[in-house]
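Notes on consecutive records. When two proteins share a document, each keeps its own sequence and its own token line. Never mix them. Below: protein one.
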Amino acid sequence: MKMDPETIQPLLEALARATDSISADVIAVDGGMPLVSWGSAASAGVKGKDITVMRDAIRAITAEVAGHADAVPVEHTTPAGYTILATKVAYRDFVGSICLVRLDGASYRAKDRELLSVSAQLCAAVMEAGEITDQHGRLDALVTYVAAELMGVTARDLAETLFRVISELGRYFGADTCFLRHNDPELQASVLVDEWPRRLDVPDPDPLGIVPWDTDDPIFSMVRDQREPFITRPSDGQLSYQERVRAGSGVPEVSLATVPLIHDDTTLGVLGLIHFGDRIWTRAEVRALRAIASLLVQLDARVAAEESLHHQAYHDELTGLWNRRAFVEDLNAVLEADPRAPLAVLFADMDRLKTVNDVLGHTVGDSFIQAVAQRLRDSVRPNDVVARLAGDEFVIVLHEIGSTSAAERAARRILDRVAEPLEVGGHAISRSASIGVVVNGDMPSTVDELLGNADVALLEAKERGGDSVVVFNDDLRSKLLVRADLELRLRSAISNNEMRLYFQPEFDLRDGRMTGVEALVRWQHPERGLLAADAFISVVEEINLSAELGRWVLEEACRQLASWKRTSPVPPPLVRVNISAGELISADFVGFVATLLSRYGLAPAELGIEITESTVMREIDDVQATLNGLRGLGVTLAIDDFGTGYSSLAQLKQLPVDILKIDRSFVSALAESSGDRAIVAAIVRLAEAFNLTTVAEGVEDPAAVTTLLDLGCYRAQGFFMSKPLPAQVVLEQARNPGVPLRMM
């Protein structure tokens, strides 16, 4: 097979440059040197035996791909670290490969593989076209030109490139018109993609623009399933076609040559050339057009694949809305063009969606999210943006919004629309939402700032109970700055020795004796003073410091109890530490506790571990083994905030706990509320049935003490008896047993 290097080299150069390769070769399976090459290993700095290794690797991969039934790209890495990508090229008696070499050792991308596959097909097409010459010059050069033009085309520059190609085809063949038409199955018609030259005066409607397949014109009716090239001349009697052309262009008679664009036995459209008057189209010209048509089909498939990948990269799979990446890039572009663009960003989140998933299943939950997404899209204007960030979180950009009040009204309207019941999977589902709003103001903002501020406003809306709109303002800005300060300083607070432990005593209500202390963490903030846990514990959880802080609290509590035992004849008999679920199920938590007991010389019964009821119920399967391990050590176990977690008797029975701590919400108004008294009485009876001890939290008045004693709850803690105390003050309470608290 003879191959003209000047014909193939432009294709190889375009391929190599597009794929960041140092060389591109077409090599026969039984050959030593390439038939046609672009670039070289030597000029790229490869020397000596490395060149020999590379050539051997190219010959080996060529033999491998040539043996494949299909042209599938194969990638190898040489011992020297070079990457080689090759695919099969075959035409008549020629079998070999087109091969790329990359020096950096990186793998080729999926797009590189697509370009290589297309190039292999182009090589075969050029081989075919190169067999024929005519009065217009070498047709293989024309095919090579088209191949090089189409090599790097993307969806963005597709239209411009197609027009340039059909322009060159028209000039090359001396045609008066060149056109490209695509079949549209939805319209059931042939649609004009582009034409050269473009008509200056196009009739309206254009008889050549969209032509139905069921037309009486036999030429246009056949394009739906055209399989072979078609030639017609004025003398062929195609009167309806000639009349349609005359109506669309004013030309009385034309000669036409069309070749179909076929992919997987489906005719995608036609490429055609028209000569005004009579013209003979040679077999060589038609064969060249067929080769070019195959290039256009490959281009169409590649661009479609790229568009599909682009859509997947920029759209949410479930809802079809933009995803975070698309949203951020679009808003960035808007703000770069106009930093003070009048717009509002709305951060929306559904309220209590977990219930829908838990009760009706995730399939219904997903359908509900899809319905909500459509409702959000329908609630805004066409130029506004709706994107799904994750789960049930959506973000909306309202353009041309110049005031806070206008943004708030729009958000409330969206909120009301979303809250209307939806029919999903045979269920009528109604869920409210919360929306945080930020308006782009006088000071330019970045996308991150707008999103962050809208998120802060959303959190405030959630804290207000949901179903509300909150606009970001100066108060929230201050709150955001405080939180940012907390996050920044918390990361080093433990290592800087800024954390403190306070201890709230627990008393026997019958004689005033201290029965234990609960360790409570405080933060000695360098600027804001001593902070209670409520001021920073949520930030600790968000920045994943819970485990580190929890272990510090546990060890410091053990160290302090050991210190009390050394310095006082009457130390607190027990120290309790509240442990999060994350800490409890962390690796070797039981072993860590055992180590602390040994290190500080504590009896297991002197350490109490508390975990909230809601956490136990949510993580019951995971924490069961750890609780059993702690029980095996002899550590005292308590369920904190009992009464709020909806545990069943069956669940409570299987937990190895010793104490139920009654939540303060049932104790604070115990003397006045018959309902709270009934709940506490039921908890006490339940504890007695399971041989458990009860401890009441939040006792703040003597009436609560009297009621608790009457109900049979004999242990309690609260401000009435003692606030949380620093370590050095706790011993004073322990040394001086009080009188029965009923008498106080």
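Protein two starts on the next line and is unrelated to protein one.
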Amino acid sequence: MSFWRGAALYAALVLFFLIANRGAYKGYFNDDDLDNLVQTRGAAVSLFAEGLVSPKLSPSNFRPAGHFFYKAMGPLAGLHYPPYVAILQFVHLLNVLLLWFVLRRLGAPPISAAAGVLFYAFHMACFDGYWKPMFIFDVACAAFLLAALLLYLRGHWLLALIPFWIAYKTKEPAVALPAVLLLYEFVLGERRWKRVLPYLGIAALFSVQAIFQNKGTNNDYTLRFTFPALWTTFSFYSSKVLLLPYAGAALLLLLLRRDRRILFGLASLVVLMGPMWFLPGRLFGVYLYIPLLGLAIAFTFLTENWKPAWIALFFAIWIPWNHYWLREQRRATLTIAFENRPYVEALGQFLQSEKDLQAVLYDGGPPRMNNWGIEGAIRWFLPDPDLKTGPLEDQQTHRYLQSPQLAIISWDPIRKHLITSTRHKGQPDPSQIVMATGNPVWLLGDGWFPLENGFRWIKPTATAHLTRPAAAKEFFVRINLGPIQFKDQGRVELELFLDGRSQGTRVFDEVAWLERRWPVPPNLPAQVEVAIRSVNPYKPSNGDPRVLGAAIAGFGFID
């Protein structure tokens, strides 16, 4: 194949890939992205350089070559998402090109090599590696591994140690490369196994440290050398590799071809899984991104004797099958993005307008954003190292409620609306609370459940304290009486206490957002203790184990 023809085919593949995956640019940052951006922003460049050359395994899972992506991109792109995806996809397409050179070096004819490259380039088990910057670790690791393998195959085995080392400093599965090189030497090569000894030494150096570091841990990152763990990972990845349940096990039938090159590819698939075989707590299809290089090699030589028409027929089935899974995963990914983007953008608008905050507590967030992502977003906009953050439900963070400069944030997932409340030094407490627009939880006492869609459930009794305006004439309580509660209970009756004195009861008796009022008695103090008691609390019939009073949407003094 001439250079220009090859370049034209590669350009066509790139164009096809970018068109098929153009939706990735509509995505948004995940929690790991936000956390990595904040964690690397304040780190000195020298820390990355030291981590890159250090023979010690990082106890904090610091991957200097991979994390440097966020260190570099933070100042350049900030929270502008498309550049992150552009670089991710650029590295993937570079890997496709490197794979081509590896396949040709292994002796694959141009048509078969092109088939192997096409198989690898669009494999939807690795969808996240094309759409989510947080998986730059896997994609970049593959790039360095391919560079090391290509150099080794060309005879530059000492020089190849450099990209191998960097690959490991990008992500840990690179430790399996020495096994691939041994397979090559004994299956396809000239059995010059001594060349692999330096690679084995490096792999042993980090593997022994990892085993000792893993000892005594018990979390999702703990290596579990047990048969149940192996069966869990095999079941998952064998169902992803060909996008059908357990279909990956059928790859063993390829061994009947008795082709050493196919054997080398399949064995590489197995060994490149590396520690992933023993991590049943961390199951992601994208973790096949590196092992699929081995399958691409096996597929390449499987098609060596196929007629072009048979290759075309295979891809006429394979590409639409992958496109189906692309659409399924695209829908889920963009759904998450459409939750995360407005949350982070609203958070930025709010926090950048606030000054001198000492604590920011959050009361929930987007459904698929973990706490470290929320805190990463907060600290991106407020980089003060002394800022206190944490989830409101955590008892350890309740002491921050005493901070004179405080912000409480919550997220309404239905309205895509950020609910905020702030307290500044010398600012009087409010006279009412409306759950849909404010969240001053420092005013709430006992008996309140987390904020939901514009309301909070209370226990049979809930307390709070409010400021009474001098002109206040009435006190209101607004609730959301839903169909389940109305069916189970018929009506809700609430008794109001102001400063410890009962003001009587009010009845809420229809499915709606209902408001009832009480007259404000004379001689109330400026700071009033409020208690709302359900006369007829109930336990829901929908399986909710709580004993509930009412879904309070708002309460307080009015003129």
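For the record: The mean pLDDT is 92.
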